């Protein structure tokens, strides 16, 4: 499943990088994806919305086994 998550993050990454941020996959366990938001995304006040409505929604759409995405 980790490889599948990485492939989806590769699709998302250019949008985050366009705003000066990035995302790093930390771990995938039992349907929970742990990521680290980097750069501008790490300290942005909208990072929670980006994580839930952008990253989590996309991952759940592409990989139905994903239950949640959390930032670490």
Q: Which CATH top level class fits? A: Alpha Beta
Order of secondary-structure elements: HEEHHE
Overall structural domain count: 1
* Global outline: globular
The unreliable regions are: none
Give the distance, in angstroms, between the N- and C-terminal Cα atoms.
19 Å
* Largest β sheet strand count, sense and barrel closure: 3 strands, mixed
Secondary structure class reads alpha+beta
CATH superfamily: Fe-S cluster assembly (FSCA)
List the keywords.
3 strands, globular, 72 residues, single chain, alpha+beta, 3-stranded mixed beta sheet, GMP Synthetase, Chain A, domain 3
Please, could you describe this protein's structure?
The protein is an alpha+beta fold. The chain has one domain: GMP Synthetase, Chain A, domain 3, CATH 3.30.300. Helix content is 51%, strand content 29%. It has three helices and three strands, in the order αββααβ. It has a three-stranded mixed beta sheet with strand order 1-2-3. A hairpin with a 2-residue loop joins strand 1 and strand 2. Helix 1 crosses helix 3. The longest helix is centred in the first third of the chain and has 17 residues. The radius of gyration is 11 Å and the shape is globular. The mean pLDDT is 90.
Write the layout of secondary structure elements.
Elements: H1 2-18, E1 21-29, E2 32-39, H2 40-43, H3 47-62, E3 68-71
What's a quick, concise take on this entry?
The protein has 72 residues and is α+β, with helices and mostly antiparallel strands. It contains 3 helices and 3 strands. The protein has one domain (2-71): GMP Synthetase, Chain A, domain 3 (2-Layer Sandwich).
């Amino acid at each position: 499943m980790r490889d599948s998550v990485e492939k989806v993050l590769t699709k998302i990454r250019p949008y985050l990088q366009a705003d000066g941020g990035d995302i790093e996959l930390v771990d995938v366990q039992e349907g929970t994806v742990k990521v680290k938001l980097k750069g501008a995304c790490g300290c942005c006040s909208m990072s929670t919305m980006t994580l839930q409505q952008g990253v989590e929604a996309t991952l759940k759409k592409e990989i139905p086994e994903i239950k949640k995405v959390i930032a670490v």
